[in-house]
Amino acid sequence: MSFLPKESSPQLVLDNLLRFLGGIYFSGGFLFIYAACNIEKTGNIVYLLGLMVLFSGLGRLYSRIKLGSAGKYFDYIMLLEMLLGFSIILLEWIR
Predict the structure, then answer these.
(1) Domain that holds residue 73
(2) 77 located within any domain
């Protein structure tokens, strides 16, 4: 599967940034698993995890405002990320 035209040269900066962000999200997944398994001990880190999810949705919203929609799928993911981030923060606050 290719997102760029076949005749274009490799986008080294784009590839570098994509792999960097992939590593960040992969390691963030381990942090989420740790926080979920140790919810009593994590304390305020749950708020930061909720903010991380919320800001990822807000980043997609900013991209949508500046460049337009990337498609319905990404719009739904954006809404899901914002709702999930807000829910994590709200549920931790209520707890």
Answers:
(1) 12-94
(2) yes
What DSSP character marks residue 10? P
Segment 39-91, tens digit of pLDDT: 778 778 888 888 888 888 888 888 888 878 888 888 898 899 899 989 988 98
Task: List all residues 6 or more positions away from 13 whose beta carbon is below 8 Å from its beta carbon.
Answer: none
Looking from the CA of 15 toward its CB, the CA atoms found within 13 Å total 6
Q: What is the phi-psi region of residue 68: left when phi exceeds 0, alpha when psi lies from -120 to 50, beta otherwise?
A: left
DSSP H helical ranges for the chain: 12-37, 39-42, 45-67, 72-94
Whether residue 2 lies inside any domain: the answer is no
b/e per residue 31-55 (b: at least 16 CB within 10 A): eeeebeeeeeebeeebeebbebbbe
pTM above 0.85, yes or no: no
Cα–Cα dist 25/59, whole Å: 14
